[in-house]
Amino acid sequence: MQPEYRKDGEPTILEILGEDRVEQIVERFYHYNLTDKKTRAFFHGINIERLQRMQTVFLVHLLGGKPINMRKMRSAHKRLLDLTDAHFDAVMKNLMKAAKDMRVPRNLRDRILQAAEVTRDDVLGRTPAYELCGSQV
User: Membrane-spanning residues where (predicted)?
Assistant: First the structure.
């Protein structure tokens, strides 16, 4: 899973938004996840403050920040056996609503969605296509 990289001299999403704004998006994102009937059950008994900190680090990575250990993210979701594509879609919708609430422009919201989408197979416990092909990406 690769973070967003600079293309044609364009700044990364992280460079445009900054870490503080990403943290605000994550806070709003968890508000939606905790109140959404499709996603809230997955957060029962979880230390939400800790999870938000980890999510911020992860999103910073995805949006052009420093590398992180992806094995931890994959193993953290293993316990969520009932997690489906529909749940992932609901989480993605919540992320987009949070970014919109924080007045992130549409073109950047689309880029955030693309960056987050690459995590789908890892979160759902499926073998990502790049691993099936034997790539060391």
Answer: none
